[in-house]
Amino acid sequence: MKRIIPFCTFFCFFAFASLAYKGPEKGSRPVHSAYRSECITAQAQIVQGVNRYLTDLTGIYTKVNNVRAHLLTGGDMWWTRQDAAYIVPHPDDPNEQGVSSIFAAGLWLGAFDPSGNLKTACQTYGNTYGSSDFWPGPLDLSGETEAAVCYNWDRFFEVYAEEIELHRSLLEAAANGIPYDSENIPAGVKGWPARGNPYFEQMYGFPLPATDQGLAEFWDENGDELYNPLDGDYPILSYQGCEGPKYADQMIFWIYNDHGSNIHAQSMGVPLQVEIQALAFSFGTGDAINDMTFQRHKIISRNAEPLDSMFFGLWVDADLGCYMDDYIGCDTTRSLAYVYNADDVDGDPLGSCMDIPTYGEEIPILGIDFLRGSWEVSADTINGEVVFDTVERGMTSFMYYNNSGLDVPYYLSGPNAPEQFYNLLTAHWIDGYPLYYGGDGYSEPGLIVTHFAFPSVPNDSAGWSMCTVSLSDADRRMVMSSGPGTLQPGEISELIFGLPWVANQDYPCPDLSPLLAADDLAQEAFDNCFELYVTTDTKEVAGEGQGPLSDVSLYPNPVYKLSGMGPVISVLPGNCDVSIYTAGGVLVSTYHRAQEGESDWQWDMRDLSGRPVSPGLYLIRISVPGLGERVLKSLVY
Question: Is the pLDDT of residue 566 over 80?
Fold first, then answer.
């Protein structure tokens, strides 16, 4: 049962005005170090979107796709704890700042125990100042942790498709008598934090926890439920309803929890005692998926009691370039929230916004889609037999508030107590007042109570969007949530979201059709387990993959012997030209074959001087007169 809590208690505090571009709302709460456990605030950061494996091999900065996104291990994401860091488009130069579409975001959870006590874990900006609701690492089966565990797990584990492909090729070679031992296992595969990994403690200096949840997912070649790469196992992309030997171009795994301290200094709430196993993943493609990132957060209850009326939420400070001229809205049918610009220039009329990079006159639209929200398992008796049914929810509410550092009405300001956080999760204002359809949703109440703010498309003059109401400029935050549900002890739930992004839309009050098409593509990909995007041994990076050259492929791939074992182009029609480039686009060598007819063709991977090429990723461009061209990747080991 959903509980709404009117908030009437007065809190006395000194507030310091703070704008997003200079740092978030610092709030009034000091760090309660005297009451903390030994776990300290999460410190680790990583950049999603950079292929460090190929960059290390080639010495060339290699992107995964068109997004560069900062990740952190403490429940917050997409910022550096100082600056915005969800950069789209991803610059080619790693030193280029780029323009960010989000300032920061964080996971929000709220629920009640059987006695009716509210529990919250809601991260916003507090980790910058040591005010944390989440800490790194797993919980034990009693829902506890300690400083050493938090410290050890304050890290990310990443793996790339190229590493998995190399590992699979080396396994295939081992089956043909070529030795393959643990020293040659690619690092991302060898160090994957999957259950039973025999190399984990050797690599990281601490053991994996022994839990039934299995930690990071993997392909279990021999079915023994223990991860061992030399048995044929490797990391995979998996979520409930989608299992199999699939993997993304980049996968980053980490674990965090909400019980590293008995005090939640961000929401001031009581811990839920949950563990979250997170996976961020990306695909490099030739369509709109190339502009997206995805995350799955597997939420495991380590609480001895059920968590009732539970809501899963994502809080987002979505600054689309400049922070002061953004509009927000949602599509209830797609479980989609989005941010767009208020006018046709991002920033002031000259495209400036203090020292913040802006999109100028080429302004995108960003969406966040709950591909999977909470679910509820119900039992019913049919013909004397108990039948279980799972009801899956997407986004069940969309709420907003304004930067409290600005001069805004109390009801539009941000939360400072557990009840206020939970009210926002359940489509209520911080004082418990319901969200009404129309106006700003509060000060001009209509007759219709709703759970979704601004659900109409911007170019619908008859709908309720920020384009049809006269609201002053503000620095806004969004809260999208899913619930209510019940999380039993040891039960697992999943929150999975993707971020569609489309470039350079027509403003003001844009047509959302391009964003909705991109979002539909993301939802279809998710529903079909990303079948069209998961990596295979030979990866096409250009061309349609259809027509006369659709059957052309490379094998073996990767090339695991440089001497006398070059790649083979199979089913090659007619004469052709082949050009080999590094991942950075530098021409390595060219070949021409005048032979007519369809047949395989093998050559050595050598540079223009005739020497074997160095290890790394290479692009093989195959051109056939009258038939076009196709570009494939080949990894040389």
Answer: no
